[in-house]
Every structure is written in C-alpha cells, then in structure tokens.
Amino acid sequence: MRKNRLLLQACAVIALALGFLSSCIRDEAPGMECDIEKMWVEGEDLEQYFYDANDMKRTVISTESDIDFSVRSVILMPKQVAVHFDLTPGATISPENGSVQDFSDGDVIYTVTAEDGKTKRVYRVGFREVSQAATNRTNSFENYEEVRYSYSNIYYHRFFELDKDGNKLSNIWASGNEGFCLSMLSKILGGQGATPEEFPTVSDPNGRTGRCVKLQTLSTGDMGRSTNRPIAAGNLFLGKFNITYAATNSLLATEMGIPFADEPVRVTGYYKYKRGTEFTGADSKVIPGRQDEADIYAVLYRNKDENGNAVMLNGGNVLTSPYIVRKARVASLPETDEWTPFDMFFEGDTPIDKVLLENLGYNLAFVFSSSKSGATFEGAVGSTLYIDDVVLSVK
Predict the structure, then answer these.
(1) Which residues neighbour 205 within 8 Å (Cβ) at sequence distance 6 or greater?
(2) Cis? peptide before 259, omega within 30° of 0
(3) Could you give the CA distance from residue 274 to residue 383 in angstroms, rounded to a whole number?
(4) What residues in the chain have per-residue pLDDT under 50?
(5) Is 4 helix (H, G, I), strand (E, B) or coil?
(6) CB-CB contact of 246 with 253 (8 Å)
(7) How far, in Å, CA of 40 to CA of 57, rounded?
(8) d(CA 236, CA 244)
(9) Which residues lie below 8 Å from residue 232, measured CB to CB, with a gap of 6+?
(10) Which of 12, 58, 190, 252 has an alpha carbon within 20 to 30 A of 47's alpha carbon?
(11) pTM of the full predicted structure?
(12) CB atoms within 10 A of CB 303
C-alpha cells in the first residue's frame, strides 16, 4: 500500500507539471484505459459533404462520450461510412476499427474495451448538420448532465443543447469545471467524492423559468495558491475546454467559438449577481478598493487565417484578435437579487463575407463569467452570477 501511495503522489507531481492529470490517474491501474483519443473519416469522395476537410477528423476530449462530425447535410451523405479511431494503448473497439457502418438509422454505438478485457466505455458516434442551436430562440439552460471526471468519484455538470430531432448536442456549451478538478487532487487521491454543487459552473433549480446557470468564483485551495491560481471563476462559453492545457496554460484551455452561419445582431437575457467581499490578485493578496465584476460578451470571428489555417480564439485573445469582425459586451452588471434584464448589441465595421458566412467561415464565441478578470486568476471568492432566458437575434 505504501508503494502504491508513493506512486500516486509522484504521479500527481508530474501531472501538475505537465497538465496530464487525467492520464496519470489512469496509470495507477495499467491496462484499464479505454478511451477514443481521435477519430476520422477519409476519402476525397466524402470531402464534398463537409464544410472543410479539417472537419473530417476529430480530437476527442477525455470527458466526451457523444461525438459528432459536423456536415453540410445528413440527408445527402452516404449512409455507409467507415470511421477510424486512435485508442488508448492496448484498447480495442467494437464494431471493428475502420469498418463500414450503416448510419442511415441514426448514430452508431461503439464499445471500447481496455487491455484488461474487463473495463469498457461506450461512445455514441454520429453525423450532424452544424447546429444553429442558439439562433433566434431562448436559451433557458434546462438541459444538463452529470459528468464523471476520469475514473474518480468526482462529478460536475455539463450543459447541452438539442437539435431539431431532439438529439443531444454536447459540443455546444463548455466550462472550466474539468480544469477545476486539478484543485481536488487530495480528494481524488484519497478516493473521496465531490458533487456538482462544489464546482464553479452548475445547474440551479431556481431559474427565472425552470432551471438556470449558476456561476460562482471559488477558491482553488493550497494547490491553486502555490501556483498563483488562487481562484476559479464560474464560466460558461460556446466552444470546448481542452484539459491538456489546464495546468500549463489555462488561457489556451478555453477554446472559444463554434461555426456560425448567421450575422448576430443582439443578445438579451436575465441575470442576478452578488460580488464577493475581498478582491485578490493572482498572488492571493487582497487589492484594497477593487471590486469584482461579472462579465457577459460575444464575438464573431473568422475561423481561417489568410493561408487557410484554422483559427480558434481562447481566453487570451478572444477580445483582441484581429480576426474579430463583430463584438458585443454588457457595459455593467450591477448587483441585484432580482432577475434583471441585460441587453447588448454587436458592433464592428469590418465587412462580413456573405458567402464565407454561409459556408461557416465564421465562429461565434459567447462567454459568461462570475469574475471579469477570472482568466488571469483575479477576482473575489463568492462572486455569484445567475443567467437565464438568453436570446440571440440575427439578421
């Protein structure tokens, strides 16, 4: 037992240095890894069904179990498609890797079996027309699920949308909840559990209509203070959270934006906000006289550079990138205990290429945060922002 504990402790140190905590925890039980790491389809005959050839391959985040390829039209696509996978070492997959499967009746279920022959993980793989889930309708944030972090007893909430057929789209909204697991290392190593309510981003039953999003700035404990990351702001954004960068460059971990085919004009919604009492910097020292602020903003940006390379904005450049063509931001969010309306309009003079827009050459990034400077680990523990009934209007 002592040897195993020393191994776990050493593993944890390496994880914090490299940002691979999830993989490290799995290594305590060799042969039990059963994840899809990448998946792709290939062939020139299939390229015409995708907006971009890069969409024919997907890197799979460790917490994903519902994985979709984004296509122009599901109806026009061939029904028989071969999907290829990169798996964790020693794992196998059924149906067979690279085998042709019939997607005419919907998604295909794949089961990944670890090297030990016992540990299994089930994935749903499908093809989806790129979602306009947030367009011209109310986002009431009723749809959420509990996600288990790696092989621990730690659970947090993840929000999702539904497509026109009622299928779950789990690649729309993201948060920093998975990264917050790094602050729970002692619980993970000790086999303890954590509930979704202990995380910065959580579904709350007391919405303006039904449920809502609760975003709370929390302390990251001794581990966060030792790395000048003493707080974690509650956040929710369109895009993905890439755990690979969580411990080394957290700004890169927030990959903000999803392909969007309309020109956004306005965002309305409702909020409640209460700021924490002590504003601290990344060095954990109180900054006298400074008060925390919540933040709500959105940008539309070109998702390819001049050479055709993919552009994905992150927490470091989402408000400053030269590829931004429209930007909207709520000027201020005063404290309020009542559901209070907010409103923001998209501004910008850069011409929008209509053909490029129709072909998903732009991404829409949408961000809510309980601490305006949370990306640089400045804020007040206890600052809490509630969000509900958000409507995005387009031309």
Answers:
(1) 211
(2) no
(3) 6
(4) 1-29, 136
(5) helix
(6) yes
(7) 4
(8) 19
(9) 176, 179, 180, 183, 200, 217, 218, 219, 220, 224, 374
(10) 252
(11) 0.82
(12) 23
